[in-house]
Write a structure and sequence with these properties.
The strands form two sheets. Strands 4, 5, 6, 7, 8, 9, 10, 11 and 12 form a nine-stranded mixed β-sheet that branches. A four-stranded antiparallel β-sheet has the order 3-2-1-13. The protein has 13 helices and 13 strands. α1 packs across α3 (104-121) and α5 crosses α6 (177-187). By secondary structure, the chain is α/β, with parallel strands linked by helices. Bound molecules: 2-succinylbenzoate (OSB) and magnesium ion (MG). 2-succinylbenzoate (OSB) binds at residues 57, 62, 142, 195, 197, 245, 296-299, 322-324. Magnesium ion (MG) is lined by residues 195, 197, 220-221, 245, 267, 296.
Length: 379
């Protein structure tokens, strides 16, 4: 196929897989103990395969999207829309899906399946297709709220010994200054930041300002998921940079947040913002504005991490990514071999064509709880 022939999809499948977490993930929005993600598998007329993952959480406590809403939007709208359209290049997919409001995770799953299929069909790596260059990317760990400070200290010691280049502690009212101060005291000037997942209100600005003395790289999403204005007010009262996660669901959100002064650091989760094309726009905006940018995570399987890893090879990703390996999160990954964090805290960016990882069909089948075939209409 040449670059400008339309992509002809012969078969499309949507598969929900349930991946038990080895340990519940406790945050300011509550406890996440199971991980159901939605996989999209595309097959074209030449036998090339594309995979995408909708990494919404099982529940609506992080954002309104859930695994079930993502499944429904993919099956009922996103896939039918792209299968009816003429897709010549991966960026066409985001344009076709643009009429869908919100539902970023669903759009991203369909979109990244086309990007990985196009990468495979053209014999290029996803890194090459997105225009990245780094051969390895620095990563950190996001550490959930633990039963005690000792348990947190133990986990941090373990990860730093393994090479991780940054530590992010989940905080919530009542679990903040004490744990941050203990970790700072125990580990000196390691790169340290916190994530509140929207669990504070502006009335508690003084509690957040008490974190200023610990030289944190940022305070992530301290206030409500949908309130940029109050984050701007808070940022004026803090020395520590505010970083936004939940509040940034499109390139336009990022532009508005930066214009308002609502954040000085950007957590980019490709799934949250609707996929790779939107991520590239946000990347370019952050470069233009000189804003620190890093890739967040949604406890994705290796299928969902693949586009994140490729994007992190772009020069605008200036800070380590949240990218705990699947081996830390799940009994087994959906790709084999999975990715690893090396002793210096880096993940290697795959050079193979397509997704960059081999999907293990037996594991997908073993974890599947729901499947739906979408039959492309004859053109
Ligand atoms: O707020 O960054 C978050 C995981 C699920 C939902 C929200 C968040 C997270 C993480 C990322 O902290 C951890 C990871 O994917 O390695
Ligand atoms: Mg976050």
């Amino acid at each position: 196929m040449t670059d400008d022939d339309p992509i002809r999809i012969e078969a499309a499948e949507v598969i929900e897989v349930a991946l038990p977490l080895l340990e519940p993930f406790v945050t300011g929005f509550g406890v996440t103990s199971t991980r159901r993600v939605v996989l999209v598998r595309l097959l074209d007329d030449a036998g090339h395969v594309g995979w995408g993952e909708a990494a919404a959480l099982d529940h609506p406590f992080y954002l309104p999207d859930t695994t079930s809403t993502a499944f429904a939007v993919i099956v009922e709208y996103a896939l039918p829309m792209v299968l009816r359209a003429e897709i010549r290049q991966p960026p066409d997919v985001a344009r076709v899906l643009a009429p869908i409001r919100g539902n970023g995770f669903a759009r991203a799953a369909v979109e990244s399946a086309f990007w990985t299929l196009a990468a495979e069909a053209s014999g290029r790596s996803l890194r090459e297709l997105v225009g990245g260059s780094a051969t390895r990317i620095p990563v950190g760990e996001s550490i959930g709220i633990k039963p005690s400070i000792d348990a947190t200290t133990e986990e941090v010691a373990h990860r730093l010994a393994e090479g991780y280049r940054r530590i992010k502690l989940k905080i919530a009212p009542g679990w903040d200054v004490e744990v941050v101060s203990a970790i700072r005291a125990a580990f000196g000037d390691v790169m340290l930041q916190v994530d509140a997942n929207g669990s504070y209100t502006l009335d508690q600005a003084d509690d957040l300002a008490a974190l200023d003395e610990f030289d944190l790289a940022c305070i992530e999403q301290p206030l409500a998921f949908d309130d940029l204005w109050q984050h701007a007010e808070l940022q004026r009262r803090l020395r520590t940079p505010v970083c936004l996660d939940e509040s940034l669901r499109s390139p336009r959100d990022v532009r508005l947040a930066l214009d308002l002064g609502a954040c000085r650091s950007v957590n980019l989760k490709p799934g949250r913002v609707g996929g790779i094309a939107a991520s590239l726009q946000i990347h370019d905006l952050c470069v233009e504005r000189g804003v620190p940018l890093w890739c967040g995570g949604m406890l994705e399987s290796g299928i969902g991490r693949a586009p994140n890893i490729a994007l992190c090879s772009l020069p605008g990703f200036t800070e380590p990514a949240d990218m705990s390996p699947a081996s830390v999160l799940f009994a087994e990954d959906m790709v084999e071999p999975t990715y690893h964090v090396d002793a210096e805290g880096f993940i290697r960016v795959p050079e193979q064509a397509g997704l960059g990882f081999c999907v293990a069909p037996d594991r997908v089948a073993a974890h599947a709880v729901r499947r739906e075939q979408i039959v492309p209409a004859a053109r």
